[in-house]
Design goal:
The chain has 84 residues and is α+β, with helices and mostly antiparallel strands. Helix content is 54%, strand content 15%. It folds into two domains: 39 residues, YefM-like domain (YefM-like fold, 3-Layer(aba) Sandwich); 30 residues. β2 and β3 form a beta hairpin. InterPro entries: Antitoxin_Phd/YefM, phD/YefM_antitoxin, YefM-like_sf.
């Protein structure tokens, strides 16, 4: 994460955008007379939105956490893909 002021962001916009894309990170742009903002790549944004969607219901979040725990404990099965 990089924190930069508005003037620096404006003067180096291409560099700021390239950095957030290349690093899969985000930048916080601080503004003197307004709320701060965040700049991130579209891939990062889409990933966050997918995560929020998957975790927004308690039942789905619990199922995902249970599945992740089973994976970490080696409780997985390898299966062949079918054309069905």
């Amino acid at each position: 994460m990089k924190v930069i002021n508005f003037t620096e962001a404006r003067n180096n916009l291409k560099s700021v955008l390239d950095t957030v894309v290349e690093d899969a990170d985000y930048a916080i742009i601080t503004r003197r007379d307004a709320e701060d903002t965040v700049v991130m790549s579209l891939d990062t944004f889409n990933s966050m939105m997918e995560t929020f969607h998957l975790l927004k219901t308690p039942a789905n979040a619990a199922h995902l956490m249970k599945s992740a725990a089973q994976y970490r404990q080696g409780e997985t099965k390898v299966r062949e893909l079918t054309d069905d």
